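Q: what sequence does this backbone want?
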């Protein structure tokens, strides 16, 4: 089943893509940016946002009770860039039924004036084409959400393995979308039509989930809105790698906690992907030649898929070749330890808070 899924993924990755034309008039857009303890990242993020090639853009920063100088850096940035339409909103916990990033978005959405909300994170740098690249895909009245592609701009062994992993994951999300299977929105690189957002009642009226991006995706889809996942250079945002293995496990645990609400077809995929690794180890002791044969075939299809994804996004391929070999033991290690970590009675962490 795992190998069959890999061949299926490769087929859909190569399918022809829709390239919608630009609208006659670009709608007003609002960037919603949640920031908590982002002193090291906020200026890089804001510098990228003010360079967006978009005619009518509002930027709203929600300072989520940061314990560092995030707020001060935003205020200084506004002073040095007076022509940029940037507004800071102090998050006060106005909606007690929600938490974490969802609570920030719930508050700052009430300050948004745009027809389209663009959502990213403070540790992300978007390209100048980002806004137009997402919004041009609202080429039908029933399109409610459009998500882009995020790439880990990692260096060295640890960072580069995360880069490969994210390319594989992002291409996978787009592949499922193109095959007509509902996936999710990418919380650090997404947009939502204001009308669709408010039809859900906003985050203050949505039951809390640590994966707020999937929750809004689920709610808008249930209301009949169409969602798109886009994989091209126009909407390719850059993120920093996770520092430390423990933090990586907490990230994966958050994803799995949110995945509890996914439909059955997704759980089938999770089961196939997750159990391949422990079962292949068992197979190695029972029939080592068969296990090695499966590993070689999987390695081939998996790397062709990743290389095609890198090529589509016009990312350097040659400096990642060595990490493709190491990616397989990385996947084994991360998948098995994530499963074990998920079962342990630890709360997951996000920005210094536990849930």
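A:
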């Amino acid at each position: 089943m795992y190998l069959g899924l890999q061949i299926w993924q490769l087929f859909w990755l190569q399918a022809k893509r829709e390239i919608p034309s630009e609208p006659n008039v670009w709608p007003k857009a609002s960037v919603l940016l949640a920031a908590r303890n982002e002193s090291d990242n906020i200026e890089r993020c804001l510098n990228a946002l003010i360079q967006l090639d978009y005619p009518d853009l509002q930027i709203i920063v929600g300072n989520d009770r940061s314990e560092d100088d995030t707020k001060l850096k935003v205020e200084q940035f506004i002073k040095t860039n007076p022509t940029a339409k940037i507004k800071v909103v102090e998050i006060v916990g106005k909606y007690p039924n929600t938490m974490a990033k969802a609570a920030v978005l719930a508050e700052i959405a009430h300050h948004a004036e745009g027809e389209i909300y663009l959502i990213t994170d403070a540790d992300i740098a978007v390209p100048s084409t980002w806004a137009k690249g997402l919004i041009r895909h609202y080429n039908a009245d029933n399109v409610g959400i459009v998500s882009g592609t995020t790439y880990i701009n990692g260096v060295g062994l640890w960072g580069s393995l995360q880069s490969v992993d994210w390319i594989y994951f992002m291409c996978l999300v787009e592949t499922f979308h193109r095959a007509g299977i509902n996936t999710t929105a990418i919380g650090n690189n997404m947009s939502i039509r204001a009308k669709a957002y408010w039809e859900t009642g906003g985050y203050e009226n949505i039951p809390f989930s640590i994966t707020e991006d999937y929750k809004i995706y689920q709610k808008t889809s249930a209301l009949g809105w169409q969602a798109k996942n886009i994989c091209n250079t126009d909407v390719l945002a850059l993120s920093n790698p996770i520092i430390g293995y423990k933090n990586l496990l907490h990230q994966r645990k958050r994803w799995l906690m949110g995945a509890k609400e996914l439909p059955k077809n997704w759980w089938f995929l999770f089961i196939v992907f997750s159990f391949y690794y422990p079962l292949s180890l068992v197979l190695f002791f029972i029939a080592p030649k068969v296990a090695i044969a499966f590993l070689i075939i999987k390695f081939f299809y998996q790397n062709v898929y990743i290389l095609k994804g890198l090529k589509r996004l016009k990312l350097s391929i040659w400096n990642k070749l060595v990490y493709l070999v190491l990616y397989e033991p990385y996947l084994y290690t991360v998948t098995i330890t994530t499963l074990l970590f998920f079962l342990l009675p630890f709360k997951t962490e996000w920005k210094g808070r536990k849930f």
